[in-house]
Amino acid sequence: MNKASDTLILGVGNYLMGDEGLGVHLAQQLKNEITPGLADVLDGGTAGFQLMEYIESYPRVILIDATLDDKPAGTIQLIRPRFASDFPKAMSTHEIGLKDLVESLTLLDQLPDVYLFVVSVKTIQPLSVDLSPDVQVVFPELKRRILELCLRPVEVN
Question: Staple 11 to which of 23, 41, 62, 116, CB 3.0 to 4.6 Å?
Answer without folding.
Answer: 23
